[in-house]
Design goal:
The complex is a heterodimer of chains A (112) and B (122). Chain A has 112 residues and is mainly β. Chain A has no helices and nine strands. By secondary structure, chain B is an all-beta fold.
C-alpha cells in the first residue's frame, strides 16, 4: 500500500486529454510538500517529467502539466500521442517517516 | 552529459551481502545529495536511502535500516550501497539517482541511472 494513491490505469485515444491523480494526506502533500512526476517507459529507468508541482525540465513538451491542491496533485497530458504509453509515478515527502521520500503506486497509461 | 552508471548487481542467497556502485560523470558530484531507489519486478518505485553532499546526513527507508549502508566517495565521484542480510523481498532493480531541490525535504530525482538487478534467491 503506497503512501500516495494513484489510479492503477488510465487510457485515452490519440489527441485526447487525460489526467492522473495523486492523493496524499496531511503529512505529505497536504503539509505543503512539493509533488514531482516521472515517466517510465517499458524496460527503462524513470525520467523526470514535472518537478515542484508544475515545472517542466527542459525537453519535456508543454503538453504535460502538473497541478496541486490540498492533499492531491494531478498530471495532465493533452494531445495524447502513442509515445505517451508508459507508467507514471508521483513522488513527495512525508514528515511522519524520517527522511522519507514517498512514491505513488504508479499509473499505467494506455494510448488506445 | 550527466550520466550515472550502476554496477554490482547479481544473484545472492538469502542472508548474503552485495555492494552496489554508481559512477557519476558530467556534473560536480560533491555538490549534490544522492539517492538509491529500487523497483521490485512488476512493482512500483520505492525510495531506499539518501546521503548528503559530504556524507554528514543519511536517511533510510525503515525496511532496510540496520541492513543497508549508503556511502559516497567524492574524489572518485561514486556512490555505494552495501547490502547485508539480504532477503527475498530485497529483489529489485536498484537505481542510483541525483537528488535535486533546495533543501533536504522537497527533493526530486534527476537523472536516474539505468539500474542494476539484485536477485535474492536460494
Amino acid at each position: 500500500q503506497s503512501v500516495l494513491t494513484q489510479p492503477p490505469s488510465v487510457s485515452g485515444a490519440p489527441g485526447q486529454r487525460i489526467t492522473i491523480s495523486c492523493t496524499g494526506s496531511s503529512s505529505n502533500i497536504g503539509a505543503g510538500y512539493d509533488v514531482h512526476w516521472y515517466q517510465q517507459l517499458p524496460g527503462t529507468a524513470p525520467k523526470l517529467l514535472i518537478y515542484a508541482n508544475n515545472n517542466r525540465p527542459s525537453g519535456v513538451p508543454d503538453r504535460l502539466s502538473g497541478s496541486k491542491s490540498g492533499t492531491s496533485a494531478s498530471l495532465a497530458i493533452t494531445g495524447l500521442q502513442a509515445e505517451d504509453d508508459a507508467d507514471y509515478y508521483c513522488q513527495s515527502y512525508d514528515n511522519s517517516l524520517s527522511g522519507s521520500v514517498v512514491f505513488g503506486g504508479g499509473t499505467k497509461l494506455t494510448v488506445l | 552529459e550527466v550520466q550515472l552508471v550502476e554496477s554490482g548487481g547479481g544473484l545472492v542467497r538469502p542472508g548474503g551481502s552485495l555492494r552496489l556502485s554508481c559512477a557519476a560523470s558530467g556534473f560536480t558530484f560533491s555538490s549534490y545529495w544522492m539517492s538509491w531507489v529500487r523497483q521490485a519486478p512488476g512493482k512500483g518505485l520505492e525510495w531506499v536511502a539518501k546521503i548528503k553532499r559530504d556524507g554528514s546526513e543519511i536517511y533510510y527507508v525503515d525496511s532496510v535500516k540496520g541492513r543497508f549502508t549508503i556511502s559516497r566517495d567524492n574524489a572518485k565521484k561514486s556512490l555505494y550501497l552495501q547490502m547485508n542480510s539480504l532477503r527475498a523481498e530485497d529483489t529489485a532493480v536498484y537505481y542510483c539517482a541525483r537528488v535535486k531541490g533546495s533543501d533536504a525535504l522537497d527533493n526530486w530525482f534527476d537523472p536516474w541511472g539505468q539500474g542494476t538487478l539484485v536477485t535474492v534467491s536460494s
